Amino acid sequence: MASEDSKINSLVDAASEGDRRSIARLLTLVERGGISAEIVAEATHPLAGKSHVIGITGAPGAGKSTLTAYLARDLAESDHKPAVLAVDPSSPLTGGAILGDRVRMEEASGAGAFIRSMATRGHAGGLALAVPGMVRVFDAFGFDPIIIETVGVGQVEVDVASAADTVVVVVTSGWGDAVQANKAGLLEIADLFVVNKADRPGAKDAKRDLELMIDLSQVTGQAVRRPEIIMTTATEGEGLDELQKAVSEHQQFLLQDDQISLRRSKRWKAEVSSRLEYLLLEISKNSIENIEENQSSPPNSVANELLKKLLNKDELH
Amino acid sequence: MASEDSKINSLVDAASEGDRRSIARLLTLVERGGISAEIVAEATHPLAGKSHVIGITGAPGAGKSTLTAYLARDLAESDHKPAVLAVDPSSPLTGGAILGDRVRMEEASGAGAFIRSMATRGHAGGLALAVPGMVRVFDAFGFDPIIIETVGVGQVEVDVASAADTVVVVVTSGWGDAVQANKAGLLEIADLFVVNKADRPGAKDAKRDLELMIDLSQVTGQAVRRPEIIMTTATEGEGLDELQKAVSEHQQFLLQDDQISLRRSKRWKAEVSSRLEYLLLEISKNSIENIEENQSSPPNSVANELLKKLLNKDELH
After folding, report:
1. For chain A, which end, N or C, has fewer CB atoms within 10 Å of the first or last residue's CB respectively?
2. Which chain B residues in 150-179 lie under 8 Å from chain A, judged by CB atoms?
3. C-alpha B53, offset from chain centre
4. Does some domain include residue A122?
């Protein structure tokens, strides 16, 4: 493990001096999980904690990728050094994308943005472990803001985006049908709404519906900041300035009253939780593999017994 | 707890004498989870273990509900006493269904079948805990076969159906597009395939594709029984006899060489595993709630420390 430690330390040193290939390799180590991911987490943790994290989520086809591509390019071409983590099989980097998005991502990249995509499947320990670790790498090496783009369908994907400082939920007219089950969930996590494809019929109705839903949630919920609603036509680049302004205003809001600490504390806790769950599930798998089968015992009693043994490990020896 | 115990014992006694309201209440207790569900599991476990369990799964809109309704009716009207557990928001019992399915389910019910639907969301401990417990209740009180119908989209739903003795995967032409991600997974669990809507163009191609996929998997995989492919037009009742015959032949196959024991052993283990995972996740939640926050520590180290403490509980006192 010592050689792994020193290899990672060299990568961290090179990354600190701006070497992009080292950053890419650190991201890959985190994405793969396991002990190397842990070493990277410990090495980058003290360097991180300064960047603003933006989560962009919403139904498939809502235009998240186009919005992300524009936002990344505009940020990179002004004074920022953005990073994009696209957790989305249809992201501009993975084939399914519109030519324009690709071009804008390349422009963003040329101006200093770091673009990275990851598949949603097949992660050891899952997305919930890999994403915060990858964000930490970007953060540690000065990328700011960091944009996480996820498709808002599965619970894990929504959770991942909601662990951001500013959560942008992208909808279009008729969006409720596509994400029926998650509608309330998306409302709950949104700091900002974008009604994209604002040139289409129904866009104004979608905005009105959102206003109504927000009104209702504000009456019953805690007194939080009312989410702004931005109208965009991403393919035409319309509304993008307003979006960037709204994100920036939300960031200012977070800095008042130290709201940002609350978010980060929540995020820290969520990551501890994901990691502990992962470790416990590994233990569960191992202890199941070794049980003696006795089908005459009810499975729940057997599980209760296994748990007792696990929690008093000494008795096992 | 003593009064809960005796209440459940009375329900079990009444259910043993065929009282349907008691069976329904036991199912509800299992569905709700918690300590009552555990008591029911322990009370019904010794009575169960005789029934044949059929899992029916596939893409939304493939016609699973119609097939299930026909199968249940035909079984009930011959010498059987089937039960149906529809884990599917669009099942005939929950509004979205075709009138014909509803009628057939009522006929099945009239002939002695027990039909129960459950929502896929909001279960304490999840579907993976509730479904085996509910199947055990049906089994304990003489329902045979027990049909579990699930929509083959989420991993949990597929797992639930695959914990059956005979797994029927229902596809239609073009099915690959709808369940892209799960295609390989569905192939892996199928004991029988149904190509439904056999009157539509493309149905023969779908069958040919399946044959090819099965050929490929047989070459690489273990030597198991080659899944039969049944062509049905469920809405017309065509192919249903063939399906019933194929299910019955698969059941005979399982009884040879004691294949059935292997399945049940796998199922028993899977249930122990679900239960243990659930218990461990509860523990994880509790221990996270009580941690002292210290964001200067990397989340993974904190989780590792928490785990150590959990596994050596004595040190906590």
Report:
1. C
2. none
3. 9
4. yes
Q: Against a cut of 0.90, is the pTM above it? A: no
CA distances from B17 to A169, B38, B216, B220, B249 (A): 55, 22, 50, 50, 31
- When divided into structural domains, chain B yields a total of 3
Shortest distance between the Cα of A284 and any Cα of chain B, in A, equals: 6
| SS3 label, residue A86 | strand
How close, in Å, is residue A134 to chain B by CA atoms?
Answer: 13
Are B4 and B91 part of one and the same domain?
Answer: no
- B169 and B241: one domain? yes
More confidently predicted of A94 and B48: B48
Quick one: closest CA in A to B41, which residue?
Answer: A298
Is A189 a member of any domain? yes
Query: Is B132 an interface residue toward A (CB < 8 Å)?
Result: yes
All residues of chain B having their beta carbon less than 8 Å from the beta carbon of residue A42 are 298, 300-301
Q: Which of A46, A271, A281 sits opposite B277 (nearest CB)?
A: A281
Asked if B165 contacts B254 with a C-beta cutoff of 8 angstroms, the reply is yes
Instruction: Give Cα separations from B199 to A143, B69, B99, B174, B208 (angstroms).
Output: 57, 20, 21, 14, 15
Q: How far is B305 from chain A (nearest CA, A)?
A: 9
Residue type for A165, please? Answer: D
pLDDT at A286: 86
Does A50 reach chain B within 8 Å, measured CB to CB? Answer: no
Q: Are residues A252 and A190 in the same domain?
A: yes
Interface of A with B in 209-268 (CB under 8 A): 264-265, 268
Q: What is the pLDDT of residues A289-313, one digit of tens each?
A: 888 878 889 999 999 999 988 887 5
Q: Is A163 found in the same domain as A41?
A: no
Q: What is the ipTM of this complex?
A: 0.82
pLDDT digit string (tens) for A120-149?
Answer: 655 545 677 889 999 999 999 999 999 999
CB nearest A276 (choices: B42, B181, B284): B284
A300 CB neighbours in chain B (<8 A) are 38, 41-42, 271, 275
The closest alpha carbon to B268, from A310, A139, A298, belongs to: A298
Nearest residue of B to residue A282, measured between CA atoms: B277
Assess if residue B269 is contained within a domain.
no
Which residue segment(s) compose the domain that B4 sits in?
1-47
CB contacts under 8 A, A 174-203 vs B, are 181
User: CA of A155, closest CA in chain B: separation in Å?
Assistant: 11
- Residue B83 inside a domain? The answer is yes
State how far residue A298 is from chain B, nearest Cα, in angstroms: 6
From B271, B299, B312, residue closest to A268, measured CB to CB: B299
The answer to whether residue B90 neighbours chain A at the CB level (below 8 Å) is: no
Question: Is the same domain home to A103 and A157?
Answer: yes
